[in-house]
Amino acid sequence: MVRTTTETITNPYRLPRTVVPSAYRLRLDVDLDGAAFAGSLDIDVEFNESVNSFALNAIELDVSTATVRVDGAEFLSSAPTFDETYETATFDFASDLPKGRGTISLTFTGVLNDKLRGFYRSTYVDTTGVTRLIATTQLESTDARRAFPCWDEPAFKATFQVTLVIPQEMAAFSNTTEQSSTPLGAGRREVVFAQTMVMSTYLVAFVVGPFEATAPTSVLGTPVRIVYPIGKGHLVDWAMEISVHALEYFSDYFAIPYPGDKVDLLAIPDFAAGAMENLGCVTFRESELLIDPSSASHAELERVALVINHELAHMWFGDLVTMDWWQGIWLNEAFATFMESICTDHFRPEWKKWVGFNSSRDAAFTVDGQHSTRPIEYEVVSPDDCRGMFDVLTYEKGCSVLRMLEQYLGESTFRDGIRIYLQRHAYANTVTADLWSALEAASGEPVGDIMDTWILQGGYPLLTVTGTTVSQEPFAYAKAKGESNIGSRWRVPVITRSLDNASTDTFLLIESAQKVAIDDTTIVNAGGSGFYRTTYSGEHLRVIANRLHELDEIERAVLFSDTWASILVGRAPFEDLFTLARGLEPLDEPTAWSVVATAARLADRFLDDDGRDALAQVVSQLLGPVLSRLGITPIAGESSQAGELRAVAFASLGLVGRDTQVIDEATRRFDANSVTGDLADAIVSITMRQGRAGDVAICEERRASATTPQDELRYLYAPASSVDPAVVLDAYERAFTTVRTQDAPYLLGSLVRNRVAGPQVWHLVTARWHEVEERFPERSPIAIVAGVLTFMTDPALAREVRQFHESHPVSVGQQQVAQILDLMDLNVDVAQRNVATLATRLRSAFGASSET
Ligand SMILES: [Zn+2]
Fold it and tell me: With CB atoms counted within 10 Å of each terminal CB, which end of the chain scores lower, N or C?
């Protein structure tokens, strides 16, 4: 495995360290109407040796000759030569430039593109119906080179001083505080920002447009503002509350003050990712920042909290201490994902964030149990390799293994290790081993040896508990047809707890089988943070199943996830999950219940009408009493879990259970335009499922006049639940015309999932696949492919889907596509095993009659 800088320096995509920048002074004249920009740039550099040529990164820019001043002399380059593959501009000189400190000066021009990367322009219609323009940046991973010539690698850290020339009436933001604003005449002004700290190019940001900002709130001396498109000032309070808490919390957790001079959190109308951690100038999709707590669901509020916490954690972990090269991106993202949950748990302990995290861990398990998985960390050569890493294995699996380690070492020991790591490497770059060595210093445990088995190989183990022996074997959902990326053995940190005396213990499972001090009353994976599956044999399992109520909430959720995994691999009958769920009825535990709801939705897709009737009876038996107990209207002071469980029960009963009372309630609320709170999504999808004339027009009208980003998306995606193919196909057409490109791929993915027209939409979309790749932001075609996951249980269609996507690889993220195709095959297998007999087995297990 490649782990050091010296080994990767032969990578042709990387620049040599013969010339190293230390400070950029960048002036950009932004022409919004003309969709263009002109820049001038001075870069202070160190010539580490005498050269007559040097290269830096630039692509889609027109760059002038360079003037170099070094050692009192001035040198002029020839016109730069460009390399499209390595995205470089090379400057040659007639004579040798001497060794020493120098300054490079050049000018350049570029186009504000519409691809939501680099320095790009977006057009949107504001709340008063007026069309507006903004120019903004998204420079991660390697698109700073599209905005200005630079040494565009995370290890070339430097300071940046940005000056923007913009229309007089517009607002401008960058990484640091505004130092001056000077009118230039002709409706233009010049805005100068303070010099940044030493940081990587991918964290530079500048945003220009008709924005407003809240008054700053001072958090430990740092001014914090929420910045939003004009007219959306009523949606910022939640974001401010979360941000204030997060900055206080992280300053304490990391024991290092916030490293920048201010924090702006900006809602951007067109944004390809969810959010971006530009130092001090954090950009978000509107739906990830702006929200109305009085009408939003708990899930939507928690989502905004998680995303803000994630980005602000990056100010330290990522911005202050940065990976040396892109293969270390997992550490950035896994750690920010870990911190988003820790911080959210501190903000609202009653939300039980780490219980809810079980669903994210399951998402990682699902991909990582396929032979097409990959190690969390792997060699990154090209920018495309790097862009393929922003997936569930980097974020959710990475977070899961960090959480497992934290719980094994102890929370305060782990935090001490993180403090050591950040203090040792502030303003510098690291490789993964640097984190392990800091955690080893804090804990005295062989952290590197343990974690290498989780980071450098794919997959995870299944632990089998037989008597006092615990053994491990690789977990896989299917037999390998060819090569497998699933590893063979792990160093598993195991936490155990006895149900009798509640004492916890830990051991490290290193061998394939070990004798340990446990008995039939021992919970293995106590606290539920292990990244492994567990099966108990015989009497042990009976004891635990009989004492289900003595488990922690998260341990129960894990038991349901493990049971579902056994069903998916064919080791347990499908109905086992439903019979186990009988024990959940009195418990407000949405995380465990959502595993049951997922299983019910999958069965609902592959069963015939008679089978669906049997399934509907089971769902009514299980969740009917839950909804009766909770009531349909929230009770003042109830827990957030009660609200979330109500949503799970309401949706399952309305969609799978086809419960007439629930359906009537959903349509009544839809008609009354009372679509708020935890039930909002379910109300819309249940209503659309009824196929009533006129509802789709109402959804479109409500989307167009929505006052929150969450409502806008809810109604945008509504056609995906329709039973009318014409409605689905109309939405498909709009995805290629009027729907914003940041949303269209997700809309198409949801339409591909549609019960009646999904396959047709997939055929239509793939017939214009070239257009899909051209039109939508990079990586977003994966969102469309992901749509095949839940509807493809038909073997013939699945073969066709696989054939198409294997012969039409996407430019970035084809490995994710391969994983999706394997998940599709898993669903097909489960359907094939159960389609003929599940109805009979359900009736026998739940005693329902065949008449409905
Ligand atoms: Zn992140």
Answer: C
